């Protein structure tokens, strides 16, 4: 079995490459990644030394490069993680989000049609559902919740998600889609809430909380996301959407305070800054379908996962120091100075 994983040098894709290489020793794993600011070959250090692994540097929206790779490799399964993934960046500059997330997905769908792929899996997001109110704890996203987006990021992901459904219905492409909640864990780029707060706390720098810190996210340890996708690509029903996540809701302030407590740092580091434009209030997944059809349930609680994550950042300082000393420094200054 040959599996192409796009975006495999990023956070979740990188964890998925490692997961698949370890679990399926008889598979060939091929990564396609453009190595944008968010892609990092250091995440794939072990994989690159594995004879079952191959890496191609290519942009998923570059049709000729992608067709050439498929002509050479003729994969059985494609899992598409490649995306521009940061909401704040999408608010600053939406265009690239459409190019990569929407047009890039279209190129992959076309090439999968041409080469008669067995399975195409689209890694979508719960952000396609928009948000839930803070005062209705009884409400959750199910697979039937209408798509209703808030940010250019979520709109571009929703466009891709709908395009995959259209290719399945119109052309019979054997596709599945997963809509996952917020992930955290090793190799998470330190512009997203959890790794950014860990790195800032370690440097005794201000921890910038948007608005009042009341927004709620449903946190999923990245390994649980990998096991869910593994189940879907092998046992999920073609044409179906699966929600992934559940039961680990925290306000942003709770998350930040937990990190400070674990690192023995003062809460005085918390700084309230201007809220994100269009900020989604609450995400919360109902994972009943994944549980009933595929026997999946998140294994790692937030309390356990956050400890593992913090330890990983303490033990892998070189990985993130290389990132924050590079071009990312400029982005950080632009986004957080005078906010
Ligand atoms: P990430 O930003 O860490 O990684 C994205 C990867 O895609 C990077 O390696 C980057 O180099 C690559 N990439 C970007 N543009 C590309 C292009 N045009 N061609 C090829 N490669 C390109 O993102 P992530 O957090 O690992 O998210 C992966 C996927 O999961 C995304 O599709 C995202 O929408 C989805 N998702 C993420 C979360 C989350 O909490 N992070 C939750 C649900 C869904
Ligand atoms: P983020 O990690 O960007 O994920 P998403 O926006 O896709 O959910 O942000 C998680 C939450 O944390 C979100 O409500 C915005 C908030 N946040 C902050 O309060 N401060 C920050 O510096 C960042 C990056 C995010």
Automatic annotation (TrEMBL):
Catalytic reactions on record: dTDP-alpha-D-glucose = dTDP-4-dehydro-6-deoxy-alpha-D-glucose + H2O
TM stretches of this protein: none
Alphabetical list of SUPFAM superfamilies matching this protein: NAD(P)-binding Rossmann-fold domains
Cofactor(s) this protein requires: NAD(+)
InterPro entries given in the database record: dTDP_Gluc_deHydtase, NAD(P)-bd_dom, NAD(P)-bd_dom_sf
UniProtKB keywords: Lyase, NAD
Keyword NAD found: yes
Alphabetical GO biological process terms: nucleotide-sugar metabolic process
GO molecular function annotation: dTDP-glucose 4,6-dehydratase activity
EC number annotated for this UniProt entry: 4.2.1.46
Pfam families, alphabetized: GDP_Man_Dehyd (PF16363)
NAD(P)-binding domain segment(s): 4-309
Similarity section: Belongs to the NAD(P)-dependent epimerase/dehydratase family. dTDP-glucose dehydratase subfamily.
Protein name, as recorded: dTDP-glucose 4,6-dehydratase
Organism: Clostridium aminobutyricum
Gene: rfbB
